[in-house]
Design brief:
The protein is of the alpha/beta class. Helices cover 39% and strands 20% of the residues. The strands form four sheets. Strands 1, 2, 3, 4, 5, 6 and 7 form a seven-stranded mixed β-sheet that branches.
């Protein structure tokens, strides 16, 4: 039987005294009582909830909901809002702040709490009237000339979580950072302001006085992303409305807030043959049909694939719960089944769409853990390309960016509208590409084969190791640093790079906790801790040259061989790391 330590009990009771939220006060008092009675699970929960403070970083805040400083709750959010308000006061004086929220438990409460605190601090606050998708908030930062945007969302995290995403804009960010998520040193400066906040109950709160975003703003957002379907004068013909009406789409919102906005955008664009996964269409903070509301997770799109078979669809599109990410599934004749496109495959297809149908000078950007195929396509089509650290806070800052993506199904196809990942404009773009290929008697599968003939076959995969003890991640990274593998699937490792070493001047990237391994056959592995979950992630890539006249069978054999090599690399890494 575990024992609740007196000092922990005292800290918990002190938290109760300062907590402005009656629900979490009562929850914590019940936990203290049960823990003092010897309930092992409650003792462990209290130890976790008070093990530290939920850290504010470049992803803002994200964590499980509940009482305590290491959880998402009204008290923690109040401190965050007060700290942001103080930071903005120092940087710009009276700031203009837009606040949005998703449909998770407590999201609206966290948003209105933030509005009350920021308004009391003298800032002009605009609050979204409903739970709207994250891209709508991200667009509002630029469209409303805001100095700051706050989105209350945990994106695709499990149901128990919530989060707090922060953008800077206007006078609070430089031109490259206007409407982009925060990066150093802003994150550390805000964190310092949060740490200096005193008693939560003493933080001033306004009873009102903030502005409500007009209901029409979501329609303004839809109008802003529709130009992704317009062709530039130098490109070939774009899809007609009849081509779009001829494309049968299955869509799932994954129990999130994207359904109404996404379906409205599709219909306004002319994609009228729409079939929504009814079980996942309406917002539901419990996410009852999926253990993890992430389209990338195994089984997450099973309902969508089943519906696609029933209605004989051409394309499946899935948004994550806050609709800033987009996934797509296609019927694969090689498997004779529907399959999810890997994030890198969809990234390559979207880049092809931008290069072919919306050509303009600029830069293609993706994260270092994403496929090098984007750079190969950029070189073939006359674009600049660059790789950045993981996260759209870095990707969106690429100079003169016209398209950016990360393999974790995040895509930026209209940086002038949303300088962040936007799952809805990306969905329109992939639907348009599918409509064009269908009108030309082809498929997205065949287009991927054409791209392999043009730039080579790039196949990627991922090994994800979830841990219950975060110390294990450090131990595994230490193993890689001290005893890296000498081969990858039989090819000699010719480069081992510690991404934590070096500077921007020497490597082109800021230091980050990661390891890069490159083999003689151009196979590559990058290993890094996840920034949002207790995982160690390994990103694997195999590159295969393909003849220009390779036929379907040749490409099938090349894909099979590359897949086998990826599986060997996964097994080797798993054994090395003891997972």
């Amino acid at each position: 039987m575990s024992t609740l330590k007196p000092e922990l009990a005292d800290r918990a009771r002190a938290w109760v005294e300062d907590d402005p939220d009656q629900a979490t006060r009562q929850e914590l008092l019940s936990r203290i009582k049960a823990a003092e009675a010897g309930d092992d699970a409650e003792v462990a929960e209290l130890e976790s909830a008070f093990a530290g403070t939920l850290q504010f970083g470049t992803a803002g805040l994200r964590g499980a909901m509940g009482p305590g400083p290491n959880r998402m709750n009204v008290a923690v959010v109040s401190r965050a809002a007060a700290g942001i308000g103080s930071y903005l006061r120092d940087v710009v004086g009276e700031a203009r702040v837009v606040i949005g929220y998703d449909a998770r438990y407590n999201s609206r409460t966290f948003a209105t709490t933030s509005a009350a605190i920021l308004r009391a601090a003298g800032h002009h606050v605009i609050l979204m009237p409903h739970h709207w998708p994250t891209p709508v908030l991200a667009h509002a930062v630029r469209a409303k000339s805001a100095d700051c945007g706050i989105m209350v969302t945990a994106s695709h995290n499990p149901a128990r979580d919530n989060g707090y995403k922060v953008y800077l804009g206007g006078r609070a960010a430089g031109a490259d950072g206007n409407g982009v998520q925060i990066v150093p040193p802003a994150d550390a400066d805000i964190a310092a302001k949060i740490a200096s906040v005193g008693a939560v109950r003493e933080i001033p709160r306004a009873e009102g006085g903030w502005e409500m975003m007009p209901e029409s703003f979501v329609d303004e957002y839809i109008e802003a992303i529709l130009p992704i379907l317009e062709r530039d004068s130098a490109s070939d013909t774009n899809a007609t409305r009849s081509d779009r009406a001829n494309l049968r789409i299955v869509h799932t919102a994954m129990h999130g807030v994207g359904s109404a906005t996404m379906l409205a955008a599709f219909e306004r664009a002319g994609f009228t043959d729409l079939h929504s996964v009814k079980e996942q269409q309406e917002p539901d903070p419990d996410f009852p049909t999926v253990p993890f509301p992430n389209p990338e997770e195994r089984g997450a799109i099973d309902l969508a694939a089943k519906l696609a078979e029933q209605v004989e669809a051409d394309l499946v599109i899935a948004n994550d719960p806050d609709a800033d990410r987009c996934a797509a599934a296609i019927y694969d004749p090689r498997r004779e089944a529907w399959r999810m496109l890997h994030g890198d495959e969809l990234g390559l297809l979207l880049a092809t769409y931008v290069a072919t149908h919306r050509p303009k000078h600029g830069t293609f950007a993706n994260s270092i853990v994403s496929s090098r195929s984007l750079g190969a396509l950029a070189a073939a089509r006359g674009y600049e390309s660059t790789q950045t650290l993981t996260g759209f806070k870095w990707i969106a800052r690429a100079e003169n960016i016209v398209f950016g993506y990360e393999e974790a199904i995040g895509y930026c196809v209209l940086p002038e509208v949303v300088k962040d990942k936007d799952g809805m404009s990306a969905a329109l773009a992939i639907a348009e590409l599918a409509a064009l290929t269908k009108a030309n008697g082809s498929t997205l599968t065949e287009l991927l084969d054409e791209l392999a003939r043009e730039i080579g076959l790039y196949l990627t995969s991922q090994l994800s190791i979830r841990v219950s003890n975060l110390d294990l991640i450090g131990e595994m990274m230490h193993t890689l640093r001290t005893t890296p593998p000498k081969t990858l699937a039989g090819s000699s490792v010719v480069e081992v790079r510690d991404l934590a070493e070096g500077t921007v001047e020497t490597t082109g990237l800021p230091p980050t906790n990661g390891m890069l391994l490159l083999a003689a056959d151009d196979s590559r592995v990058i290993v890094r801790p996840s920034g949002t979950e207790p995982k160690l992630k390994a990103y694997l890539e195999v590159v295969t040259e393909v003849e220009e006249n390779a036929d379907f069978n040749d490409l099938s054999a090349a894909r099979e061989h590359a897949t086998e090599k990826l599986e060997r690399m996964k097994k080797e890494l798993s054994e090395l790391l003891g997972s």
